[in-house]
Amino acid sequence: EAWVEPLPPAAAPAGDLLDHHAVAARYPDQWVLFRVYAHDRHAGLSLGAVVAEGVAAEEAVRVERRYRSRNQTALLLTYHTAAPPPRGIARQLSRDSG
User: Fold this and answer.
1) Distance CA 33, CA 53 (A)
2) Which among 36, 53, 64, 70 is least surrounded, fewest beta carbons within 10 Å?
3) H or E element: which one contains 21?
4) Order of strands across the sheet with 31-40?
5) pLDDT of 33-67, one tens digit each?
């Protein structure tokens, strides 16, 4: 299990926040916990930062719970980078949770 602090925007490609498709390219073949900060409606992308990477499949739920206990309002995506969530997922999640 790997536990890292949120990736600062300056560390992301071109100084931008990562979208969840860029995460798949940056962290191939592993589970990640991705915190969504915004949704770019024009591009249809969820924007955010990786808060945990290298998580084993059986640990993914526990890692998400641990992060959520620190920040109950965070919008989180836990997924394997070989199958990133569909474009627009942040908009769907925020609509469902709000």
Assistant:
1) 6
2) 70
3) helix 20-26
4) 18-19, 45-55, 31-40, 75-80
5) 888 887 777 777 777 888 888 888 888 889 898 88
